[in-house]
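User: structure tokens for this one?
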Amino acid sequence: MSDKSTIEALINWPVFGHNKEDKQDVFIKEMRRLSALHSKNCVEYSTLIEKLSDKPSTLDKLSDIFPVPVRLFKQLRLLSVNESDIVKTMTSSGTSGQQPSQIFLDKATAGLQVKVLSKIMADFIGLKRLPMLVIDCPATVKDRYRFSARTAGILGFSLFGRKVTYALNDDMSINFAAIEQFIEKHKDEKILLFGFTFIVWLHFVMSLEKTDKKLMLDNGILIHGGGWKKLQSESVSKDKFKKRLCAVTGINKIHNYYGMVEQTGSIFMECEYGHLHASAWSDILIRDPMNFNVLPVNQSGLIQLFSVIPQSYPGHSLLSEDIGRLLGEDDCHCGRKGRYFMIENRLEHAEVRGCSDTYS
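Assistant:
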């Protein structure tokens, strides 16, 4: 189904050290191939292109690639393979009464998710699997066949951990006994922590503050994402999140990531300077919400997300409902190449979404 030479060239690309001109050539080639693939095999995507796209058929630039609105995945079953080829169905979280997004994965797409995520994570935590503390409860991962975004996140990041321990009980209270055993066992090792932002804040940081307890996790690296909408509504900035987390755990290596279930695996990691980075396998553009023109650096607009991963559904180019700004390209102080950006807020009237905004 896929052009192996193109995929392999991209998979073997340096994560954040690619030459801009070389990446653009290979990346746009893959975007053209995926656009043609999904147009041929997904009737709904083909209809969208026919009725809404006024771009040239040559697709010479990233901005020529038609973006599918992410909300459409809540309304339609979008897939470019036979039902019999689907090996996983992933669902997004959603507000009460709303249909969640459904994302259908075949074996090739699921495999690409793992490969890409592994390479991105290695850039931040190294190649070695680390003892892992998940800031969530075991019940979250019980259903291994119908993945919620939260389940997929935990299982996906758990690939980079060993001796995985859950920090919370199934009632979302802190499991102090399990954490203390974990700390004692791995006190001389670098450890990995993972959790969704709002869960880390509400059920971990605030619970520790209420009990006036501190944990010795200063050898940890925390990867977290999702749920910023609720934190912003409670006036919790990224700086406040980091400072109060550090105060109760000692953790000072904290990396937020931006991503969505519609492009699982293709995450944008936050560097040491607080900037979100596109990897070799993803990219972004910022579009004016009124006329959809591409905006230059430091102008706020809707984020268009590109990924080489989606082979089984038309998710290679998505128009998000998030407002952000492109901050630059190839010149972040962290040394990573590629475009880097920041998220500002949600499009007005867009529903609350995010991996951890809704849970039971």
